[in-house]
Design goal:
Shape: elongated
Strand content: 25-35%
Oligomer: single chain
Number of helices: 12
Order of helices and strands: HHEEEHEHEEEEEHHEEHHEHEEHHEH
Length: 377
């Protein structure tokens, strides 16, 4: 087994792996081969001789007391040797716990060993590649990736080639109304990475996750990418509408204005990628009453009352609003109030005031909201 280090370097360069990882995989392959063709119960170890670029396979035998119970065990007895026998056959200076090493050359075992070694090398190098990819894409969960569609199956799952791996976009993770064909280039976020012993690495993508919206905003808005604007929270009903809460870390940067862009150019680019999804940008605040009032936009509300549980955690926001604002607050099919609830993390209850009870004009409604903003600012 000469020049094994040359093989290590070639595999490492070709597969993009570290030399140390490849060395460990090759040593494992040699040990497993020795167990298959020599004896599965032997305690083999493989070592690489850096000087002559070769690999050695040795069996380790531990010197034990003549009365050691392992000597009577059919399997364990192959890992140990009685001290009296060891001193008689090897060295009369041996002590308890010393280890003897017996070297084996797999070339002596002919084609059987060569065939087994070839299979073991392929298997362990492939596992190493998959583990490297698994760790790489595990760190990319919720990050944006792009690739070319290679297949769409009968269940409408879309298979994409992302760099060196195959990924899948399930039908449930596709925005309603989208369809893809072979050759299309699409973007999505990594939702889940799974390692299967039979199928190998499995990467699941998503275009319906709020993280996809956030990733697109980071890509489109330089202020978010550089960190002066922060996406605090987001909520989506894919393909229909989304709400994003933003904050600015720089007094001269308008979080909402920067994200929307001049004449809405930035937010429209993101909306186009999301199949026309409408995106509401909201200035974030940690004052829940004020945050809820902003999240309910475009409805103009009168007041917000927060209910809390025994531990002091906010559970419900009771919103009072004029009757003519209720339809705006609810939104088409309840979409606005649902998104506001998702964004704020509380259940929302609407209490309307009849227009005859005093809150009648839009100017008065707007004054109420301005007063709420002023109260907390």
């Amino acid at each position: 087994m000469e020049k094994i280090l040359d093989i290590v370097e070639a595999i490492a360069n070709e597969k993009g792996l570290t030399s140390e990882a490849v060395k460990e995989a090759i040593k494992t392959a040699f040990v497993q081969t020795a167990k298959r063709v020599i004896d599965a119960d032997y305690a083999f170890e493989a070592t690489i001789d850096e000087a002559n670029k070769s690999i050695k396979v040795v069996r380790t035998i531990t010197v034990v007391d003549d009365n050691d119970e392992r000597l009577q065990d059919e399997h364990l007895s192959k890992e140990v040797i009685a001290i009296s026998e060891a001193r008689r056959e090897y060295d009369d200076q041996l002590e308890l716990g010393d280890e003897l090493q017996q070297e084996y050359d797999l070339e002596d075992y002919g084609r059987t060993a060569a065939a087994n070694l070839n299979r073991e090398l392929e298997y362990h190098i492939q596992r190493l590649i998959e583990n490297e990819l698994y760790n790489k894409y595990k760190s990319k969960i919720n990050q944006l990736v792009s690739g070319r569609v290679t297949r769409v199956d009968a269940s409408n799952a879309t298979y994409i080639e992302v760099d060196e791996v195959k990924a899948v976009l399930p039908f449930k993770s596709r925005i309603k109304g989208e369809s893809f064909s072979v050759g299309d280039v699409l973007r999505a976020v990594v939702r889940r990475v799974h390692m299967d012993k039979e199928q190998g690495i499995y990467i699941e993508l998503s275009r319906t996750s709020p993280k996809f919206l956030e990733a697109l905003l980071r890509l489109e808005v330089p202020e978010i990418q550089e960190g002066s604007v922060v996406i605090e929270r987001s909520a989506r009903i894919p393909g229909q509408r989304a709400k994003v809460a933003l904050s600015s870390l720089h007094p001269q940067v308008d979080a909402v204005g920067s994200t929307v862009g001049v004449k809405g150019v930035r937010i429209n680019a993101v909306s186009q990628e999301l199949n026309g999804e409408n995106i509401d940008c909201i200035e974030y605040t940690d004052i829940l009453e004020l945050f809820v009032s902003r999240a309910m936009s475009p409805a103009i509300i009168t007041s917000v009352e927060i209910e809390k549980d025994e531990e002091g955690k906010a559970t419900k926001a009771i919103i009072t609003l004029p009757s003519d604002q209720k339809s705006k607050a609810i939104g088409k099919s309840g979409i606005n109030v649902r998104l506001a609830s998702m964004l704020c993390g509380v259940e929302i209850e609407l209490n309307e005031i009849d227009s005859q009870d005093g809150s009648t004009t839009k100017e008065e409604q707007k004054d109420g909201v301005d007063a709420l903003e002023a109260l907390f600012n």
